[in-house]
Design a protein that fits this description.
A hairpin with a 5-residue loop joins strand 2 and strand 3. The protein has two domains: 88 residues, Immunoglobulins (Immunoglobulin-like, Sandwich); 76 residues, Immunoglobulins (Immunoglobulin-like), CATH 2.60.40.10. It has a five-stranded antiparallel sheet, with no helix packed on it. A four-stranded antiparallel sheet has the order 9-10-13-12, with no helix packed on it. The chain is mostly beta strands and 176 residues long. One of its GO terms (molecular function) is signaling receptor activity. Keywords: Disulfide bond, Glycoprotein, Membrane, Transmembrane, Transmembrane helix. Belongs to the CD200R family.
Length: 176
């Protein structure tokens, strides 16, 4: 999320048309087209952050600026040339880093939360715990994972929560 992504599409000899088709997981499909014979481009229901990387007659790559969850899905580049039709397919997966936090609840128990991540984060306690993480899905495809520390022995005063995610890991200690 927030980064830019470039999907390559190589031009062939004698190109008559280049088309990018995007099928999002949610929402309307998008099409970008280019015809060299008339030097024209066309776009249908594509967001403003999606466009040719440079001039389509020189580089048919698609650039997606400030990638958001809405840009997750299938992308296909089709090049029509005198040598035939050529397809290149991509599936763009959007990762959203969770917002980790560690705090003490009203009962004095440690609570570790990894909010609105995609995919869901894994939450672990350094000391053994009887905790089972709770997951809450959100409409935008992100998930919040919450874990309450439940000690197996009563003399635990300090514990550490660790959050694991493809975008990076995090850990913090707390004494409640």
């Amino acid at each position: 999320v927030g980064d830019s992504s470039v999907l390559d599409c190589h031009l062939k000899n004698g190109v008559t048309m280049v088309t990018w088709k995007f099928s999002p997981l949610i929402g309307a499909p998008c099409t970008l087209g280019y015809r060299p014979d008339t030097n024209t481009t066309n776009r249908t229901t594509c967001s403003d952050n999606m466009n040719w990387k440079s001039r389509p007659d020189l580089d048919a790559s698609l650039e997606i600026r400030h990638v958001g969850i809405a840009q997750e899905g299938n992308y296909t580049c089709e090049v029509v040339s005198v040598d035939g039709n050529f397809h290149k397919e991509y599936y763009l997966t959007v990762l959203v880093p969770p917002r980790p936090s560690l705090y003490c609840d009203d009962h004095g128990s440690p609570v570790c939360e990894a909010a609105v991540g995609k995919p869901p984060a894994r939450v672990w306690w350094v000391l053994e715990s009887n905790s089972t993480p709770e997951k809450e899905g959100h409409d935008n495809g992100t998930v919040t994972v919450l874990s309450r520390f439940t000690a197996r022995s009563t003399n635990v005063t300090n514990t550490t929560c660790m959050v694991f995610h493809p975008t990076g890991n995090w850990s913090q200690s707390i004494a409640c």
